[in-house]
Amino acid sequence: MRIVKAAWRVIATEGIQAASLRRVAAEANCTTGLITHYFVDKNDLVTSAYRQVLDTMIWDATEAIAGEDHVAEKLLAAIEAIEPTRAALKEFTVILINFWAAAAFNPTFAEYCKQDYVRWWDLIRGVVQEGVNRGEFKKDVNVAMLVDLLTLVSDGLGVGMTLTPGHYPRHYRAAIVRQLLAPLLRG
User: Fold this and answer.
1) What's this model's pTM, rounded to 2 decimal places?
2) Residue pair 3/34 in contact by the 8 Å Cβ criterion
3) Confidence class for position 126, pLDDT limits 50, 70, 90
């Protein structure tokens, strides 16, 4: 984990292109030989770092969902759980943005991004579908479209909060999600 955390710090502060084995080794205060004992190459290390970020974010969102009773609160909790409101989550968001950018040129990274986007989409879909099944949404709600809107909003908020954190205080972020959901919920 020490090596992965070092990779996170390098990617979050210098970008994915700077995350060479040598640079990560210096950050982790170890040798490149130790890194290559666990990781085949830079791509393997960066992918592992990214996957651990995504696993953590999905786990946090899943836990947040479980702590709420109503669909609107579950969805808001899931989105808030991955927002860069704490230093670690801001670092995670910067890592995601770096990985997404690299995925445009790296087919292996792109495949992981697609798989993980499906994981996030499925998590949100499960909550929306539960809300439909419990009668919290109006009968004519388009589940797929709502899930797309919510995942796009969560991505946009993450990027916006990373670039202009003061523009998105908690009450405003919550209002955005609530306004999106309001016309679709039963009164």
Assistant:
1) 0.90
2) yes
3) very high
